[in-house]
Design a protein that fits this description.
The complex is a heterodimer of chains A (300) and B (329).
Chain A (H helix, E strand, L loop, with lengths): L4 H13 L15 E12 L2 E12 L3 E5 L6 H8 L7 E6 L2 E2 L5 H6 L2 E3 L12 H8 L14 H21 L15 H14 L4 E5 L7 H16 L3 E5 L3 H7 L2 E6 L2 E6 L1 H6 L1 H8 L12 H8 L1
Parallel strand pairs in A: 3-8, 3-9, 6-7, 7-8
Antiparallel strand pairs in A: 1-2, 1-4, 4-5, 9-10
Chain B lengths: L2 H12 L2 H19 L7 H19 L3 H23 L4 H19 L5 H4 L5 E2 L4 H5 L6 E3 L2 E3 L1 H25 L2 H11 L1 H6 L4 H27 L1 E2 L6 H14 L6 H25 L13 H19 L8 H5 L4
Antiparallel strand pairs in B: 1-4, 2-3
Classes of the chains: A alpha/beta (300), B mainly alpha (329).
């Protein structure tokens, strides 16, 4: 990132501001989309998990993807990040087509994701987990690895960056522990911090708050807002409606694989279509996490 | 009881030819299984490729030894690629099935009657593969206290352990580098590594081929030491002993395979020597155990020893108990 944080901040605010003028309808075009998906379809046998005709994500925004259990949110994430091959569809990121690219190339292009069930590398220390996230490491080649002189300086730079990031995410005191020894909430933080090590343009968080205690939730929210201020686009799946209301600039609602509504959080939560599909009579209460994968299996 | 001879044989075999060969094969498996989490059950096949390359190319074709060794290494690289291309994208168990089958295919082809003229069938190939190399040996044999090696064995063992030292050093260098970090991360969770922009498939292929090349060097040393190859030396038992050695020493530890191999061969020889002497000296009645049953009984006893190790020290000799405990969370 060449621009100064201040410039980024102003730009991000500006770009977010323009969302006010976007019509709150499913598939609405955005003024400056960083991600555009078209006719993305993924079926498992007879079950259509994802069938999205058009979806755009605004650059510099925090966009939430919500929907009832089994709506296809995680499958949609898996498809666009290259972890799950779709039956059909095209999508592009910053103008570059991504369909058919393997997951590691998607990440290199700047679209970095985390997972619903955290994937920390248990037998590596927290610091090693962080170092792994850094991109373009010279020491990651089989032959260059044998000559420490080629990569030692870069490794030091990555370590410095990792330590700064760990401090930000409140994990510095556990940096030498095995990642497997961390609590669930700390793992969520570590996964997010590690994804940040990869210098993403768009960070895709799959249920960042699942299993995190309320005290930590608050600091996690602050981190996510801070990332937006740095000019990073955040696209996240979440069940916690308080969180969605609190931090998102734009909300996309999926149900049964399709986008049924989108708009600013306040607007979406009043939308009768959404209330019917998802919120039901209890839309004022915070929804609790209820094992989505189980439901999905039952559906299949 | 001839205690001197018992200890002499045990300690000699602890650092003997078999220990070197199995140690090399185990160093390869340690990279694949210990660091990268790849279940390669075909290490015997890699070793067979190295051994047969030397035997066939030197004896039958008449090439110089060094060229034959290079061909063996290239052969093992190709074997690794053939195994890896279809299986490394799949789950780990598929690799285990494919590698064990592929190693058996190699052994069955080597002992087939049709190729008798080229590969020697079940008798294998004997001959002077390495006469020039043995001629370089400046040392005489050794007979010092508990170590006793013939001139040729000493040369094999010295060169073999030197090779082990070089490979252990390379492993150590690799595993403390960012490359090794990616490998260990793949063992923990492939998808996490993919999500961070690393080409997991490439790393797994590199690990499989690298471990296989080291396995083929085990075969090369085996063939040069014995001056013969027999296909049944490269059966699945070799692979399983190698896994025992890796787990015994502690997987994903540079010195694990080295110490593991030494302990394995010491125990095996020590138990059989001890039983042999005890039976002959009448301490164990020949009604209970006859000398020709000892070969089987020693494996039972080693097996019991391994079970005890797994119960009381599941991480192996060098392993870290703290690391192992993480699996249970």
């Amino acid at each position: 990132m060449s621009a100064s944080p201040e410039v980024n901040r102003q730009q991000a605010a500006l770009v977010r501001g323009t969302l006010e003028y976007v019509a709150p309808v499913p598939g609405a075009p955005k003024p400056d989309p960083i991600f555009i998906g078209d006719t993305i379809n993924r079926s498992f046998g007879g079950l259509v998990a994802v069938d999205v005709s058009h979806l755009e994500v605004q650059r510099g925004s925090i966009t939430a993807l919500i929907g009832p259990n089994g709506a296809g949110k995680t499958t949609f994430f898996n498809v666009v990040t290259g972890f799950d091959p779709p039956n059909s569809g095209t999508w592009s990121f910053e103008g570059r087509p991504l369909a058919g690219k393997p997951a590691y190339r998607v990440a290199r292009d700047g679209m970095v994701r985390t997972f619903q069930l955290t994937k920390v590398l248990s037998k590596l220390t927290v610091l090693e987990n962080m170092r792994l996230g850094a991109q373009g490491q010279r020491g990651e080649g089989l032959f260059t690895a044998l000559v420490p002189g080629l990569w030692r300086r870069q490794e030091q730079e990555n370590t410095d960056r990792a330590i700064a990031m760990l401090e930000k995410f409140n994990l510095i005191h556990v940096k030498d522990e095995f990642a497997g020894a961390l609590s669930g909430g700390q793992r969520k933080l570590l996964e997010m911090a590690r994804a940040m090590m990869a210098n993403p343009t768009m960070l895709m968080l799959d249920e960042p708050m699942a299993g995190v205690n309320p005290a930590l939730t608050q600091s996690l929210l602050e981190h996510i807002k801070e990332l937006r201020e740095e000019g990073i686009t955040i696209f996240f799946v979440e069940h916690d409606m308080d969180m969605v209301r609190d931090i998102s600039d734009w909300v996309i609602v999926m149900a049964q694989g399709t986008v049924i509504a989108e708009g600013p959080p306040a607007h979406v939560m009043r939308d009768p279509v959404v209330i019917d599909a998802y919120l039901g009579a209890h839309h004022d209460a915070a929804l609790t996490e209820t094992g989505e994968s189980l439901t999905k299996k039952a559906d299949a | 009881m001839d205690w001197l001879s018992i200890f002499q044989n045990s300690f000699t075999q602890m650092v003997g030819v078999a220990a070197v060969v199995y140690c090399l094969a185990a160093l390869g498996v340690n990279i694949q299984f210990g660091y990268a989490g790849l279940l390669n059950f075909g290490q015997a096949g890699f070793a067979a490729i190295g051994a047969y390359a030397v035997a066939v190319l030197v004896v039958t074709v008449g090439w110089p030894l060094w060229l034959a060794i290079i061909c063996g290494v290239i052969g093992s690289i190709l074997f690794g690629l053939i195994l890896g291309v279809p299986t490394l994208r799949l789950r780990a168990d598929y690799l285990a099935i494919v590698t064990i089958a592929a190693a058996e295919i190699i052994r069955q082809v080597a002992r087939s009657v049709t190729l008798n003229d080229y590969l020697g069938g079940s008798d294998g190939i004997s001959g002077k593969y390495a006469a020039d190399w043995y001629a370089l040996n400046p040392f005489e044999g050794i007979d010092f206290f508990v170590l006793r090696f013939s001139k040729n064995d000493l040369w094999v063992v010295l060169n073999g352990w030197a090779l082990v030292a070089i490979i252990a050093l390379l492993t150590w260098l690799l595993m403390r580098s960012p490359w090794g970090r990616v490998l260990k991360s793949i063992r923990e969770d492939e998808d996490a590594v993919r999500s961070l922009g690393k080409n997991v498939y490439l790393y797994k292929m590199q690990a499989l081929v690298l471990g296989g090349v080291i396995g083929s060097l085990a075969g090369v040393i085996f063939a040069m030491a014995a001056q013969s190859v027999q296909p049944d030396n490269y059966a699945t038992t070799l692979t399983f002993y190698v896994y025992v050695i890796v787990i015994l020493g502690g997987a994903a530890r540079v010195f694990g395979p080295i110490i593991g191999s030494m302990i394995f061969w010491f125990l095996l020889v020590f138990i059989s020597e001890l039983l042999n002497n005890a039976v002959r000296a009448g301490y164990i009645s020949s009604d209970i155990l006859s000398t020709d049953q000892i070969g089987q009984v020693r494996f039972m006893l080693v097996g019991i020893g391994l079970m005890l190790l797994m119960i009381f020290r599941p991480q192996g000799i060098f392993g870290d108990k703290k690391e192992l405990a993480l699996d249970e969370r």
